[in-house]
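Kindly draft a sequence, keeping tokens residue-aligned:
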Amino acid sequence: MRIGITFDLREDYAREGYDEEQTAEFDGIETILSIESTLQALGHSTERIGQAHALTRRLLHGDRWDMVFNIAEGMYGFGRQALVPTLLDAYQIPYTFSDPLALTVTLHKATAKRIVRDSGIHTPDFGVVETAADIAGVALPFPLFIKPVAEGTSKGISAASKIRNSTELRTGCEQLLARHRQPVLVETYLPGREFTVGILGTGAASRAIGVMEIQLQGGPEPEIYSYDNKKYYEERVLAQLATDATGDAAAQLALAAWKVLGGRDGGRVDVRCDAEGNVNFLEANPLAGLHPKDSDLPLLGRLTGMSYVALIEQIVASASSRTMEVR
């Protein structure tokens, strides 16, 4: 196939003056080169398209592709991840990964939690702070955990995210509201084991390829899988497969959440245990990172014996099978 690749390149935004945290979700050139070379090794021809503005120009120019490999995150608003898929839908161009609805729903973590909760899937009790005036109305027992409602890569998460009293709640929420300019998700803190579950496929064809337990190895933020702990994961994080009964339960819960949220082709679901060891849904990532060495989904693949080439091949095969069904 002739496959275009849509992405937000971190280096491009850095040149425009955006800082490291603002561009944390975007991909470096290594990831783009890895996807590009892998697709070519699988027999496809590739074209780099870039972000939504570049895609718009190419579409208006009349360019078309058999498929687009989409990893574009977008920059602004709750619909930022949905922008590229929406444009491609308008031109009836097939693409990898989830559709605009699933991407918007999962980006807004509170909306995703409402959907999985209504489907009978366990998730921590939560509230949403839209403005500082809402803080006094939070009626959840301490300790709590706070984070921006629509960020990835643990942006906005630090040691201060674990909240022990009303003073910390007010300070933490006010700081997140000011820095990230979006609502704050407030949820019951879960003290148990933490997992990320890799998933491939769509709907009934979805399957969990592995469950990876996240174990923090000390450091300045020993309880929190924070932005800094993710950044320095090689020194601070031990990631290994969880194959026990709790790991199996995490896989089942993640797969159920993936299906009800409408995830497609591949991604991850984050799960954490409460004090009794029961697994709970935290969030879903339907545009999981694909750096061959550093990203969790390729790492999960390696731990289960799946090469990077095989991972990309199965993602494209899943998207192709959906395209054939529509036609």
In short: The longest strand covers residues 207-216.
